[in-house]
Amino acid sequence: MAKHEKSLKAPVTKSFDFLDGEVERLKDIGQPDSALLAACRFDELAQGLRATDQMLVELRATTSETASTKGMEKGAVDDWVEGATLSVLAYYFVEGLLEGERPLKMDGMFAHCRDGMQKYFETVNEIRTQRGEESIPPHEPVFVNYSEQPIVIKP
């Protein structure tokens, strides 16, 4: 993410239909032990750019002198992906890979992404509202799991 970005501008979004109706057919095409983690439902738009934790701290500080920044300090992902741009889902997935309890299981990663994304959108929209800007529509990840065994991630 560029160091000069100091706002949470409303994203430019385009509709994209990925596997709409196809997920249910995964078992029918010879893939009984398959799973899919998606950033949002097919009828939602996923946010493609996540502000870093440090940017949120700076934005919150400029919005209100008394606003709390507790829990929003620079995180492990910010250090790991210095200069990179991640989507909201990818950010929390990487955070789960770096900080998650071992062995990493997909259902736990899904929960981590869901909870992180919810907190992120609450924080971003609180800041945007205080600045008189329109809220960004939140979304949450979707996890479809046809696997009979626990899915373990080996980073």
Q: How are the elements arranged and paired?
A:
Blueprint: E1 35-38, H1 53-63, H2 76-80, H3 88-99, E2 104-105, H4 106-130, E3 142-145, E4 152-153
Helix pairs in contact: 1-4, 3-4
- Total strands: 4
- Cα distance spanning the termini: 24 Å
- Principal-axis shape equals globular
Helix and strand composition category: mainly alpha
Count of separate DSSP helical elements: 4
Total individual domains? 1
Low-confidence stretches: 1-6, 65-72
Rounded mean pLDDT score: 75
> What is the helix content?
25-40%
Largest beta-sheet details: 2 strands, antiparallel
What strand line-up does the widest sheet have?
1-3
The amount of beta strand, in percent, is 5-15%
Q: What string gives the helices and strands in order?
A: EHHHEHEE
- Rg, please? 17 Å
Describe the structure.
The structure is a single chain. This protein has 155 residues and is mainly alpha-helical. It has one domain. 34% of the residues lie in helices and 8% in strands. The protein has four helices and four strands; from the N terminus they run E-H-H-H-E-H-E-E. It has a two-stranded antiparallel ribbon. A two-stranded antiparallel sheet has the order 2-4.
